[in-house]
Write a structure and sequence with these properties.
Low-confidence stretches of chain A: none
CATH superfamily of chain B: Aminohydrolase, N-terminal nucleophile (Ntn) domain
CATH architecture of the largest domain in chain A: Alpha-Beta Barrel
Helix content of chain A: 25-40%
Strand order of the largest sheet of chain A: 11-12-13-14-17-18-20-21
CATH superfamily of the largest domain in chain A: Aldolase class I
Strand order of the largest sheet of chain B: 8-3-10-1-16-15-17
Oligomer: heterodimer
Number of helices of chain B: 10
Order of helices and strands of chain B: EEHEEHEEHEEHEEEEHHHHHEEEEHEEE
Distance between the termini of chain B: 25 Å
Largest sheet of chain A: 8 strands, parallel, barrel
Mean pLDDT of chain A: 96
Helix content of chain B: 25-40%
Number of domains of chain A: 2
Number of strands of chain A: 23
Largest interface: A-B, 43 and 43 residues
Radius of gyration of chain B: 19 Å
């Protein structure tokens, strides 16, 4: 049968510019470029190209350009090229389609329909270069009130539960050692320490190289329980129980044995070469009371010195679930929206499960307030945060802080080619192949990751200044400073935001 | 732009309203005539033990509905129309009536009901404002009252015959509204129980503050940002037991870079207050005067984006937007100063006045 499957991309090479140095052959982990030395002929396997642009940028004579392949099926609005290609792929393989990064379907992006307020006349805007501007954020449980004995001097009677102190309300999301390289993790760990924020280990444990940054690292306890032991829990700044992930709500994870190298085997505490399976549910958490037991088991193990977070995918019933999590004892609930990224997920889950982070923040924040327990725990939002504006909007909707994953990787060189699950990341991020890993220098990576945080923090300060606020807590949940443009009445009601013009 | 003023006698000596009207008149170019008002403490010594409810009614119907509601809820000791003279500058929009009420005996049978009694009055006030069309409670404290309307404050003062009342604490406000329509209820002072607030500026953190208060059962329905200040003081001081000074640390906290350098245990106290009361922090440009039965407080935002002047002369304390307003009523001053951003100036009955250094 004819395989009538047009490639996605076409590699164009300027033959006059090409000097046959074969650099592209060495650079491409997918085998797009092939040179027959005897016949002195090039063959480009266009169908293997993922448009990562590695070869184009490494070509010393800039002879290569990658373009969208002009050949397509006859246009059809319903039976798009993507739909037809997916069907053909599955007809051939009989398999689930695997992919990576975040949701690709064109759902409404609420962030792009929300606009921020600004000062004019009646309240002066504040110039952050001249006036103090504060982004410090504490994540964790706050008391209902402060009890002071003020008779003779002042005596603090209230004991504050352990909180994480963030100098900017942006953290690096959990991406495990295994899904990404130690160089990528090191880059983020150094940046987090420099800027005064945190990164997550993901489920891959904490590599010894990360120990110097452990006070800026949040450890994760997920359904596979890889690497979880007392020292690991005590070493980090906080612990996060991962229940679900926005990119693949309701399903587990699978790190193929081929990726379980000696170092990963040590860090995760599993045999070398064995598949690392994270089951869909935690098999000791089938209910909210089970979750509560794990939360308190972790708190007991760490002598109540570490805040414990619980991460869930934002799903339809996110508000009552999040309230339950906070009532179960979590110090923060992490909401991962359906645009959240992943190193590997079945396309059907990535694109069709879960809800947008914006509405999840709004409904969880509102429900916690209605129940009078908003101060019991913080809300950390993640999944599709692309810019400082998204951060500001997420906070105005009610989040305390955000996690960034994809954005952090892009800062490290990722071009979002969506092939993380192959383990062949051409930019040395989502890979364990030594030759590929060398492509990311952690010193350079740390500088760029820190720069991203600094740039966004600077922009956040400018945003606050334009809003006439000099501290981030006055933006938190301040939906009055947002307006919706082109949103339906129901959307506005759920978001708790007025339409522009009102 | 708005203007505000306050006179406080530390010995509890009651003075007629003439001086506060003068103070208000001196700042006329700060207002546009769409709201002015006064609050006086100590004006009803004969009924000092009862809650004095000042009400605006749009018409007789609203009054009847309110009285029907009040009848089942509180014991009305006395009620009367608030005496007013006609002034050509202010069209009379409302019937203004006052009720001296007490909470029925069943709520007073035990000591711990006292706090509940105040919550009961608050609930009464919110219910009237919320559910009875055309009725609005302007004030609900004991031995005090709020007099306000749409107009220049000195005209409002004349209309209400303010000069005939005697108080040991007077505060006034004139409005130049930029965020909400001018209506009688929207004029300052805002009051809840004993707390009265006048405010010049804008609470840019209003959305955050309002949602925090709503989670504590307060209803912000007055279409203005100022009411949150009154409710925040009620929550932090009356309900949660903070001192006014500690409440000021919560509402206009020092910057973290300063807190970080404080010695222990001060640092822990400030950190605890700031972490806990982050959603209560007032942000944006403001100068406010807050009063209750024994205190008058002047407070600025953390970077002093609105004017506020304080002065002292014998047993009198003055706070105003403009120095001229103070000097006009008291040319002989021992001390006049501009309080630092975020530092509360606290004048207490039978005590001194001082600027509390928290910044």
């Amino acid at each position: 049968m004819v395989r009538n499957f047009p490639p996605d991309f076409i590699v164009r090479v300027d033959k006059e510019a090409c000097i046959n140095c074969l650099r592209c052959v060495r650079e491409c982990p997918f085998g797009v470029h092939e040179y027959d030395k005897e016949k002195k002929k090039w063959k480009r396997h266009h169908e293997k190209c993922v448009a990562c642009l590695r070869c184009a940028y490494m070509c010393p004579t800039q002879a290569i350009s990658i373009e969208k392949h002009p050949m397509e099926y006859s246009p059809h609005p319903v039976w798009t090229n993507k739909v037809r290609k997916d069907i053909k792929t599955q007809a051939e393989t009989g398999s689930v389609i695997l992919t990576a990064m975040g949701n690709e379907l064109p759902y409404l992006n609420y962030f792009d329909r929300l606009v921020l307020d600004a000062c004019q006349v009646t309240n002066p805007s504040i110039d952050p270069l001249r006036e103090p501007m504060e982004l410090r954020t504490y994540i964790g449980r706050k008391p209902e009130k402060v009890d002071l004995e003020e008779d003779n001097g002042v005596d603090l009677k209230t004991k504050i539960a352990p909180n994480l102190k963030l100098e900017t309300p942006i953290m690096f999301a959990h991406m495990s050692y295994g899904s990404i390289s130690i160089e990528a993790q090191l880059s983020m760990a150094r940046a987090a320490k420099e800027v005064g924020t945190y990164m997550g280990t993901g489920e891959g444990g904490m590599h010894v190289d990360l120990y110097p940054y452990a006070d800026h690292i949040i450890t994760q306890v997920a359904s596979g329980r890889f690497a979880v032991h007392e020292e690991y829990l005590k070493r980090g700044a906080a612990i996060e129980i991962k229940i679900g992930q926005g990119a693949k709500p309701g399903i587990g994870g699978h790190l193929p044995g081929t990726k379980v190298t000696a170092e990963i085997s040590q860090t995760r505490m599993i045999p070398e070469g064995s598949d690392a399976i994270s089951p869909a549910p935690h098999h000791d958490i089938y209910s909210i009371e089970d979750l509560s037991r794990l939360i308190y088991a972790l708190k007991e193990a760490t002598r109540y010195k570490k805040p414990v977070f619980v991460k869930i995918a934002a799903v339809h019933n996110v508000a009552p679930i999040a309230v339950g999590i906070i009532r179960a004892g979590a110090d923060a609930v992490v909401l991962d929206g359906f645009r959240g990224g992943t190193g590997a997920a079945p396309q059907v889950h990535r694109d069709h499960h879960g809800i947008p982070i914006e509405v999840a923040i709004a409904s969880v924040d509102q429900r916690l307030r209605e129940e009078g327990i908003r101060h019991w725990g913080s809300i950390i939002a993640s999944g599709g945060i692309r810019s400082s504006a998204d951060v500001a909007k997420a906070i105005a909707l009610g989040a305390d802080a955000v996690y960034i994953g994809t954005a952090a990787l892009v800062a490290l060189g990722c071009t979002v080619c969506k092939k993380c699950y192959t383990g062949k990341c051409p930019w040395g991020i989502a890979t364990q192949v030594p030759e590929l890993r060398k492509r990311l220098n952690p010193d350079e990576g740390a500088r760029r990751a820190a720069n991203l945080l600094k740039a966004w923090s600077h922009e956040l300060k400018e945003i606050l200044g334009a809003l006439g606020l000099n501290s981030i807590e006055s933006l938190r949940g301040n939906r009055d400073r947002l307006r919706g443009v082109g949103l339906s009445d129901v959307d506005l009601e759920v978001l708790g935001v007025k339409p522009a013009g009102r | 732009m708005c203007g505000l003023g306050g006179i406080f006698n530390r010995d509890g000596k009651r003075i007629p309203g003439n001086d506060i009207i003068t103070m208000a008149r001196m700042m006329r170019d700060r207002y546009d005539g769409r709201g002015g008002g006064f609050a006086g403490y100590g004006i009803y010594p004969k009924y000092a033990e009862y809650y004095a409810l000042h009400l605006f009614f749009r018409d007789e119907e609203a009054k009847e509905a309110t009285e029907e509601f009040l009848k089942d809820r509180v014991a009305i000791i006395k009620d009367e129309e608030v005496p007013m003279r006609n002034v050509k500058e202010i069209p009379k929009e409302n019937i203004v009536w006052r009720y001296f009420v007490e909470v029925p005996h069943k709520f007073k049978s035990k000591k711990e009901y006292l706090a509940q009694e105040e919550d009961y009055i608050i609930d009464t006030v919110f219910t009237i404002n919320d559910e009875i069309d055309g009725a609005f409670v302007a004030s609900s404290g004991k031995n005090m009252g709020v007099f306000k309307a749409t107009g220049m404050p000195d005209d409002v003062g004349r209309m209400y015959k303010i000069e005939k009342y005697k108080a040991y604490c007077w505060i006034t406000h004139g409005r130049f509204p930029t965020n909400t329509p001018g209506w009688w209820g929207g004029a300052h002072p805002f009051n809840l129980l004993d707390w009265s607030v006048v405010h010049n500026g804008e609470i840019s953190s209003y959305g955050t503050n309002r949602r925090y208060l709503e989670a504590h059962g307060y209803k912000c329905r007055l279409l203005t940002d100022t009411e949150v200040v009154a409710y925040l003081f009620d929550l932090l001081v009356r309900k949660q037991g903070l001192s006014i000074r500690s409440a000021a640390i919560a509402l206009t906290p020092p910057f973290w870079k300063h807190i970080d350098k404080m010695p222990e245990p001060k640092r822990s106290i400030y950190t605890a207050l700031r972490m806990t009361y982050a959603p209560a922090m007032l942000n944006g440009p403001f100068a406010i005067i807050v009063a209750n039965r024994d205190t008058m407080v002047g407070l600025n935002d953390r970077i002093k984006l609105r004017p506020l002047i304080a002065a002292k002369s014998g047993d009198f304390v003055y706070i105003a937007s403009e120095e001229a307003a103070i000097r006009e009523v008291q040319p002989e001053l021992e001390k006049l100063w501009a309080p630092r951003a975020g530092n509360p100036v606290i004048a207490r009955l039978y005590d001194d006045v001082r600027e509390e250094v928290i910044h």
